[in-house]
Design goal:
The complex is a heterodimer of chains A (398) and B (512). Chain A has 398 residues and is mainly alpha-helical. Chain A has two domains: 75 residues, no CATH class; 284 residues, Orthogonal Bundle (ABC transporter involved in vitamin B12 uptake, BtuC), CATH 1.10.3470. Chain A is 73% helix and 3% strand. In chain A, strands 1-2 form a two-stranded antiparallel ribbon. Chain A is globular. By secondary structure, chain B is of the alpha/beta class. Chain B is 32% helix and 27% strand. In chain B, strand 13 and strand 14 form a beta hairpin. The termini of chain B are far apart. Classes of the chains: A mainly alpha (398), B alpha/beta (512). At the A-B interface, helix 9 and helix 10 of A face helix 10, helix 11 and strand 20 of B.
Chain lengths: 398, 512
């Protein structure tokens, strides 16, 4: 038993997965405490609703989980990719919203593009604009050594206000105070997902279809591509080397300035694509609301990346988890919880979950310590009672 | 019966993939200087870390004054009177000397610091043991030698009786080493017991009473230093006879490979010229050594040649091709290899595995990649080949994270990578820094083999013995200028020293 545990502890993947799970459990526990404090009588019911998350509303609910997970996968990849290459991309929010605006603008205005290409062009534009938004901090970092945390935060605000201004002046639906819905041809195809994720309403047989679309597939494909780039290619090898040690990369003949710029640009492109994927989703989907709030999808990319330990495949799962728990929180409104409290609870769970990295370091050490204590106790007790040991080993043999 | 102040009995410590200490017994007498000798990775540092409470032994017991103790962390070690000077000092850089010494054991009254008492005690200690320090100097402004004295004062301030020195001389100049040896002898006279980790035999001879030799995690012997010769000690440590002198046949140098013409480098901040109008040539089949005291422009000269710093004036040629303004990758492709001075800053990506580091300069060649995808199989095979050929030791072989490897093996990995590139010109900056005699011998032999194979080698070294032993020509650098060219066969150490200290220079304006 102990030997098996020891072996498991030496496997990296096992440690990573357990630490993420423990972090989630800790987050849930903390969330429950907040529930208890805010509304003791309904805390238990509320907790069940959160746990049921996306499942609360059947197949459509699951579809919604995937729909809201899509941008989180992309912003999570954006933060995680930058992190793996030694950069802190706090600017996913700005890159995301600028990408979103570009997609919506093209989706609404450029109706001259033939149907099958319209949404593709819009997505491409979102990716490019996101990349452009990260290019500036990348250049500043590479050539002037301006720290990317500062410059990306600044770019967040510039992006938010610029997007708000542009939405209001170009694609604004003043009745709903939202951006206009994009043209039918710019909506991402459902790709069969509408046949799985829908609820039947009443006895009439009408169906309530989830917003999820092929964007989810695109997100997963992107995660796989990023995984391959980081782990299998010379390009990823160079980017990671620069992240770990810029001087040694320069010494080895890697163009370290170019690598830093490219890392930022790719991170920005991912976040921008996330913006496009979320907003190219028809009338029932999300619309840009031009208010002075930084896009939360961008910031949630940080806990998504942390919970997934920056592993692209891990990020897929952590994004789904966070989307799931957020939706569960929305359903809390059926009880007497104020929306603000719901936000606090969900934020607690999410940010606690982001401690996965800490758990990864503490957990194996803790377990090993326990194991060694257990072994010591065993050897001590056997020393003091040699006869007992003899019988014990005899039994062991049998 | 002997009076042992510390006994470490049958210590066993295992790390994943390697037994660092295999049944080691070490007994330290009161008032003796006991050296701990072994190759890189022999388990010296692990053993001392166990004594200092940084690691727990898997098996074995530690006795202090004959009583068994459990040293669970450095605070316990401290309470038992055990102090340690680490190889890399543990000082707060922007604190003063005094603040560093009292850190953790501050004298206070009502929550306020009372520095005066501490200051008096520190001054008294520094006078008693001849440890000259300025209590109010900021640590980052003082020399490495003085920083070490601060570390020693830290131990004395805590009234430690057992002092561990982890390779204390690796970072010191020859004069500072002499001072340190005197200090250690004084400390032992005062009744302190000293454990001294090193792989320099001369120092053991000079200072230690007894010496325990470790090899590959096992204890070979504990010997009386006075009655054992250096050759015997090195044989015990390495497990075979070691040749100190490098044998090399005379060969006529061939075509010039590296030509440096009127090279000048300016420091961007101060505007001072760190390299002044330097010209020289390195030809096929010769080892040219740049000798000089640290900080006389050697680093900048090498940076400019290898492309890490831009040259402000002058030209650099490799095989007749002007590379002055070429990128580092193009210089490498032209046949330049570089064993850098700072292995952690430039030489290695510490968080990469050993195999990833071994292909750091050739991962992009068609052997190791196809259409941008790395060929992991080939990389692994190549790494294992180098690991065997150059005897690079690590816990998990090619998959070891380089950060976890011992310094000597990290250096071997760099040397292996750079030599195996098959360079036209090999620039080696202090290639044997921090290595044990076995590894030094090996690297020196490799350099000579390369030379005999018709390669050009530019060696930058601070160790005079190394300079005299293996170079074919010596260029002395002083304050950024080449002040003399010497032939190691006809010159003396004294003369070389004179040139290095700026006391003598050739009349010629240019050394070619």
């Amino acid at each position: 038993m102990i030997a098996v545990l020891r072996k498991l502890l030496n496997i990296r993947g096992f440690n990573n997965a357990t630490s993420s799970i423990v972090a989630i459990l800790a987050g849930l526990l903390f969330g429950f405490i907040v529930l208890l404090i805010s509304n003791p009588s309904q805390a238990a019911d509320g907790f069940v609703i959160i746990l049921k998350g996306g499942f609360s509303t059947g197949a459509k609910g699951m579809g919604q989980v995937m729909y809201f997970a899509t941008p989180l996968i992309l912003t999570g990849l954006s933060v995680g990719f930058a992190f793996k290459t030694g950069l802190f991309n706090i600017g996913a929010s700005g890159q995301f919203i600028m990408g979103a605006f570009a997609a919506v603008y093209i989706g609404v205005k450029w109706t001259f593009i033939p149907a099958p290409f319209h949404w593709m062009v819009a997505l491409l534009a979102a990716t490019l604009v996101g990349a452009l938004w990260a290019l500036i901090p990348g250049l500043l970092k590479a050539y002037l050594n301006v720290h990317e945390v500062i410059s990306t935060i600044m770019m967040n605000y510039i992006g938010m206000y610029l997007a708000n201004y542009l939405v209001k002046t170009t694609v604004y639906d003043s009745k709903k105070a939202l951006s206009m819905s994009v043209a039918e041809s710019a909506v991402l195809p459902k790709a069969g997902l509408d046949k799985i994720f829908y609820n039947t309403m009443g006895s009439s047989g009408a169906v309530d279809v989830s917003t999820v679309n092929c964007g989810f597939y695109i997100a997963i494909v992107m995660a796989i591509i990023i995984y391959i780039v980081l782990n299998k290619t010379t390009f990823g090898y160079e980017l990671k080397a620069c992240g770990f040690n810029r001087d040694a990369s320069k010494y080895a003949g890697i163009n370290e300035k170019r690598s830093i710029v490219l890392s930022m640009v790719i991170a920005g492109a991912l976040a921008g694509l996330g913006g496009g994927l979320l907003y190219l989703s028809g009338a029932s989907g999300r619309h840009i609301k031009p208010v002075d709030v930084l896009a939360p999808e961008g910031f949630n990319g940080i806990p998504v990346a942390l919970l997934g330990l920056s592993n692209p495949i891990g990020i897929i799962f952590s994004a789904i988890f966070i989307s799931y728990i957020t939706l569960g929180g929305n359903y809390l409104q059926t009880l007497d919880f104020v929306p603000e409290i719901i936000d606090i609870i969900i934020a607690c769970i999410i940010y606690f979950s982001a401690f996965a990295l800490i758990f990864r370091n503490i957990l194996p050490a803790l377990l090993k310590w326990r194991l060694s204590v257990a072994e010591k106790k065993r050897s001590q007790s056997s020393d003091s009672d040699e006869e007992g040991l003899a019988t014990e080993t005899e039994e062991g043999k049998e | 019966m002997d009076d042992y102040v510390i006994e470490m009995l049958n210590i066993i410590k295992e790390f994943p993939g390697v037994i660092a200490n295999d049944d080691i017994t070490l007994q330290l007498k009161r008032g003796e200087i006991h050296a701990l000798l072994g190759e890189n990775g022999a388990g010296k540092s692990t053993l001392m870390s166990i004594l200092f409470g940084l690691y727990q032994p898997d098996k074995g017991i530690i006795k202090k004054d004959g009583k068994e103790v459990n040293i669970s962390d450095p605070n316990v070690a401290n309470a038992l009177g055990i102090g340690m000077v680490h190889q890399h000092f543990k000082l707060v850089h922007n604190f003063t000397v005094l603040q560093n010494i009292i850190l953790g054991v501050e004298t206070t009254k009502n929550g306020f610091l009372r520095m005066e008492e501490a200051r008096e005690k520190v001054i008294a200690l520094s006078e008693k043991y001849g440890l000259a320090v300025d209590p109010d100097a900021i640590v980052e402004d003082i020399t490495v030698g003085m920083q070490q004295r601060v570390e020693i004062l830290k131990m004395l301030y805590r009234e430690n009786e057992i002092l561990i020195f982890d390779e204390p001389t690796a970072v010191l100049t020859p004069q500072e080493i002499e001072e340190l040896i005197k200090i250690m002898k004084d400390l032992a006279k005062e009744g302190k017991s000293i454990l001294f980790i090193t792989h320099k035999l001369n120092e053991i001879k000079a200072v230690a009473d007894r010496c325990t030799v470790l090899r590959k995690g096992k204890r070979v012997a504990t010997i009386d230093v006075a009655s054992t010769s250096k050759e015997e000690m090195s044989e015990m440590m390495v497990g075979r006879k070691v040749e100190f002198a490098v044998e090399k046949a005379h060969i006529e140098p061939g075509e010039p490979v590296l030509e440096v013409r009127n090279l000048t480098v300016e420091d961007k901040q101060s505007g001072k010229k760190t390299v002044k109008d330097v010209s020289f040539t390195v030809r096929k089949g010769e080892i040219v050594c740049i000798a000089g005291i640290d900080g006389n422009g050697q680093s900048e000269l090498v940076y400019a040649i290898t492309g890490l710093l831009p040259a402000d004036d002058g030209q650099i040629f490799i095989n007749g091709m002007d590379v002055t303004n070429l990128s580092i990758r193009k210089r490498n492709a032209a046949g330049m290899s570089h064993i850098p001075e700072d292995r952690h800053k430039h030489g290695l990506v510490l968080d990469y595995t050993l195999e990833e580091n071994l292909v750091l300069k050739c991962y992009y060649t068609p052997i190791f990649q196809k259409n941008g995808f790395l060929k992991f199989q080939k990389i692994n095979e190549y790494a294992n080949c180098l690991i065997e050929k150059y005897d690079i030791r690590s816990g998990q072989g090619a998959k070891s994270i380089v950060r976890s490897m011992s310094g000597g093996n990290q250096q071997k990995a760099i040397v292996a990578r750079e030599i195996d590139l098959g360079p036209e010109i090999l620039i080696a900056v202090q290639p044997t820094r921090g290595l044990d005699v076995g590894a030094i011998e090996y690297i020196h032999k490799q350099l000579v083999v390369q030379r005999d194979a018709g390669k050009a080698i530019l060696l930058v070294s601070l160790e005079l013995e190394e300079v005299m032993n293996i170079s074919d020509r010596i260029l002395v650098i002083y304050e950024g200028e080449i002040v003399g060219e010497l032939d190691p066969k006809t010159t003396t150490l004294k003369e070389l020293g004179l040139y290095m200290a700026g006391g003598k220079r050739d009349e010629r304006s240019e050394a070619v």
